[in-house]
Design brief:
Elements lengths: L2 H7 L5 H13 L13 H10 L6 E5 L5 E7 L5 E8 L5 E4 L3 E3 L8 H5 L1 E4 L2 H14 L8 E4 L9 H12 L11 E5 L3 H8 L6 E5 L5 H7 L2 H4 L2 H15 L3 E7 L7 H11 L4 E7 L11 H13 L4 E3 L21
Parallel strand pairs: 4-7, 7-8, 8-9, 9-10, 10-11, 11-12
Antiparallel strand pairs: 1-2, 2-3, 3-4, 5-6
Helix pairs in contact: 5-6, 7-10
The protein binds iron/sulfur cluster.
Length: about 325
């Protein structure tokens, strides 16, 4: 959906017509202009031709109904994946993608294997949330959005910010800024820009290792922005915003789960406003996940040393919708 063009279409009409259209799309969640009963038939006909509201794609839901992965078809024939996670107390979280593929090639990530195809527009990013809002029962809404799907949001900075502002805008999705998180692999200029935005959206850093050697072997972006530079940017962000930073740490057996990793993590995080999310790895032929006992031990030791730590629940492994598993075949 190209929102700018749609908005421009209404330039020839009184302002309230655009408001009626916007309400129909984002509040009533219409799927066809036929349902926009407040708009005159002539306008609806024209809109049907020029701005179809269909969001083509397919989806797959886990047996427990908690995770749905959708593959959306984009206008140029590429595809993008997005995931809906439904928690027990019916909190609905959408994990959105910001790029088709990704150029950063993290070793533990299926998206990285695809290579980079292109950036998504803000319209394509918010369409992922719209897709799932339409699927929910009428008394439910999307409560949280995490920018943790395919791609590196800070390498598509402008469109990511536009999408965040539209999701937050009460006339569009009205999702609280504090209920949204953007995760970066550590793009330093993006972190600094984000610090200046005066926006309450959470910043998450995909950390995954506490020393340069290990991190560079897992995440090539660390060679460009090593830990010392990354943490300078993080300190700048914390000083500017007075907000804590979330850190994500995928535990990989024999790689980043040792005693020395615990010591280094404590050294990096203890004095900084932080929350550390430990993420159980979804096994592949490349890496082995740690045992549940080791995961608890690792968490316990970090807590004893003064860190704020949680374990991220993993959703949708069976349908390849969990962290690091998104990689649709966009090669066509
Ligand atoms: S983890 Fe994120 S940044 Fe790294 S390759 Fe995957 S999508 Fe890109």
């Amino acid at each position: 959906m190209n929102l700018n063009d749609l908005k421009q279409f209404f330039d020839d009409y009184p302002d309230y017509r655009w408001e009626q259209a916007r309400t129909a799309i984002f509040q009533q969640k219409i799927r066809s202009w036929n349902e926009a009963s407040t708009l005159p038939k002539k306008i609806r006909q024209e809109l049907k031709q020029k701005f179809p509201l269909r969001l083509p794609g397919s989806f797959l839901t886990t047996a427990d109904g908690k995770t749905t992965k959708a593959v959306l078809d984009l206008a140029d024939g590429l595809q993008v994946e997005t995931v809906l996670m439904r928690y027990d107390n019916s909190r609905n979280t959408v994990c959105v993608s910001t790029q088709v593929g990704c150029s950063l090639g993290c070793e533990f990530c299926a998206t990285g294997d695809m290579g980079f195809k292109r950036n998504l527009t803000a319209g394509e990013i918010i369409s992922q949330v719209l897709y799932f809002s339409r699927k929910l029962p009428s008394d439910e809404r999307i409560d949280n959005v995490v920018f943790m799907g395919m791609g590196e949001p800070f390498l598509n900075y402008g469109e990511t910010l536009k999408a965040l502002r539209l999701l937050n805008n009460e006339k569009y999705f009205n999702i609280g800024a504090r209920n949204m998180s953007v995760s970066t692999a550590g793009i330093v200029p993006g972190i600094k820009l984000f610090a200046e935005e005066n926006i309450q959206v959470n910043l998450a850093i995909s950390l995954n290792a506490a020393d340069d050697q290990t991190r560079s072997s897992l995440m090539p972006v660390n060679r460009q922005y090593p830990l010392v530079e990354l943490f300078h940017a993080i300190d700048y962000y914390i000083a500017k915003t007075n907000r804590k930073v979330m850190f994500e740490y995928i535990l990989l057996k024999g790689i980043n789960d040792g005693e020395k990793d615990i010591r280094k993590l404590v050294g990096l995080l203890r004095e900084r406003m932080h929350f550390l999310n430990l993420i159980p790895y979804n096994p592949t032929e490349r890496f082995i996940s740690v045992s549940a006992t080791r995961l608890q031990e690792f968490k316990h030791q970090l807590e004893k040393a003064g860190l704020n730590v949680g374990i991220r629940r993993s959703f949708g492994q069976k349908i390849k919708a969990a962290c690091g598993q998104l990689a649709c075949d966009s090669s066509k």
